[in-house]
Structures are given as structure tokens and as C-alpha cells.
Amino acid sequence: MKQEETVGDLDQSVGYVLKQVQASLHAAMDEVLRPLGLTVAQYACLELLGQHPGLSNSELARHAFVTRQSMNVVLRRLQERGLLTRPAHADHGRALPTELTQAGQSTLRTASVAARAVERQIFAPLSQERQHRLHEDLAACAAAAGAPQP
Amino acid sequence: MKQEETVGDLDQSVGYVLKQVQASLHAAMDEVLRPLGLTVAQYACLELLGQHPGLSNSELARHAFVTRQSMNVVLRRLQERGLLTRPAHADHGRALPTELTQAGQSTLRTASVAARAVERQIFAPLSQERQHRLHEDLAACAAAAGAPQP
DNA sequence: CCTCCTATGTCAGGGAACTGACATAGGAGG
DNA sequence: CCTCCTATGTCAGTTCCCTGACATAGGAGG
């Protein structure tokens, strides 16, 4: 079973190594979040709410790159656990502004520490300067892919 | 509904923008592959077999970042469609070496052209030099994440 | 005022991935 | 030779996410 079999042509694809790093990151995040009783999607939801309180279900879904139906079940589970609150009905429109409870903020703090440690470790092979460049390059691609219509 | 709300702190996370680009790439790939009757996972399987004929189910699963159970159903569907062949039982060991049929190679060529066009477009905002740097940096992270045990 | 049009929340169903478990083939070590 | 140990293929069950559909709230335009 050769492991060092002169890395195939697929490793020459930027998209392939991108997927590879993303898979590693997701697996490592899942490993540290599972003991806390959180999935990666649930953590993403908490982190978004911690930094942008009052986001609605649909807005959270867009920022987490899932459908609003999927985010809906995430929100309901977190609400059952008392980590966040949603008004029963909106005052203006249909959007229900969501906010973290005290327990939610506490859980978020613990999870955020673990998650950021994982991220730091994944990108450790790169110097601070290279990490910054990587961030810039990825952000440029994301911005272009997000609005190619105009 | 402010869209330009001074981009939150999460956009400062490398892992977040990484996920963002990966989601965009996956969505764009799915869009061009679906008319060909292929999912992204099925295309990845064909591409791997095109570049490394004779890979087994487990080896394909590792290179595609899924479990062997998931890859198993992918292989079975592709085999039903006559795009690849697997011996009924292995001569040596239990690994079943898989290979593409003529139809499989033909389908792969069409899909590969579309997929590489998508990838080229996603990373178009970056110069050739920056794309090369991006590839190097991601590969370094992937290599470090793949073997952190020693 | 009335009519589209979009956005949002929600329900129902299906697909794709994962975890857990089992049996088997080959090699390593005593 | 016999005993672990690992790797592989496969079956069963569960969980997560997606697509499709519906009802509703607010705004745009005639």
C-alpha cells in the first residue's frame, strides 16, 4: 500500500486541496465540539448570533451556507436546550430576531475557544504573513463568486 | 436589510472564508454536473479512477474524503449505469480494483471539461502567481493535517 | 385600492452521508 | 502452526441536509 505514490494529478487542482483542507478542518472541529454536545452547524449558528445578535432564521442560513429549512431545525434544537430565544411572532414582518441566552453565551465562549484553537492548529504550517495572504486571496474569490451577476 | 453591514468578525476567520469558497465551488460544480446526471461525489470518483485506474473502494473513499460505506453506494450506482467495472471477487486480498469502461471514460471527459471550467472561473480573481501560492499554502496545511501523529 | 412580487417561516418527503456492527483475507509475531 | 491485528467489503439504522410546496407579511406599481 504505497502512501507516497508520487501524488496524482488531482493534487494539482486548487479545488481539490481546498476540499481537502476544508474536510480536515471540519473533522477536527467536529471532534472538539462533539464532547460539548454541539455539531459544527450548531456552533456556527451560536457564533453568528454572538457576533450579530438579532439575526433571523433566513439570515443565519445564508451566513452559514445552508438552507433556511436546515437552519430552522438547528434553531429549534438550540431553543429547546435553552441556548437562545425567539419571539413567538414578529412585530414587523415575518422575520423572527434571534438572540442568545446567558446559557447560550456561556456555551459559545467555551466552544469558541476550542474552535479557534483548532483553526490555529490547522493553519499553523503557515507564517502569520502567509495566513494573511491566504485570507485575502480566499476573500477575493468568495466576493467574486457571491455577486457575479452585475 | 443591510447587506454591507461592515462585514462581521467571522469574516476575519480564515476557516470561515475557506468554507465560503468551498461552498461556492461545490454549488457551482453541482450546477454544471447535474445536467450530466452526475453528483459531485460521483464526478470525484470518476476523476480519481481516470487518473489512478485500479483503485479499490476504500482507497477511493479516502481520496474523496468520505467513508467507504458512502463510496460503496456511489460505486454501485456508477456500476449499474455501466460507467465502471469491478471484479466479483478479488484474486489477492479483499480489495476490488475498479476501472472505468469506455462509457465511463467518455462521461468523465465531458464532466472534467465542465468541472475545470468552473474551477478556473472561481479562482479567476487571482493572478496565476497568486493561484500558485494559494495552492502551495493549502497543500502545506493539508499535508500537516494528514499526518500529525509522528 | 388592488394587484403582483419578494421574503420569510414552516411542513412533508427524499437523498446522501455517517456510525455501528459483522464476516473475511492477509500479514506479523510468538 | 496458531494467534492477534489490520484492512476491506458489506448490511442495517440513524442523522443531517436538501428539494418541493404552502401560507403569510410587507412593499412596488398601476
TrEMBL record, chains A, B:
Residues 11-143 form the HTH marR-type domain. Transmembrane segments: none annotated. It holds the Pfam family MarR_2. Gene3D superfamilies: Winged helix-like DNA-binding domain superfamily/Winged helix DNA-binding domain (1.10.10.10). InterPro entries: HTH_MarR-typ, MarR/SlyA-like, WH-like_DNA-bd_sf, WH_DNA-bd_sf. PANTHER family: HTH-TYPE TRANSCRIPTIONAL REPRESSOR YETL, TRANSCRIPTIONAL REGULATOR, MARR FAMILY. This is MarR family transcriptional regulator.
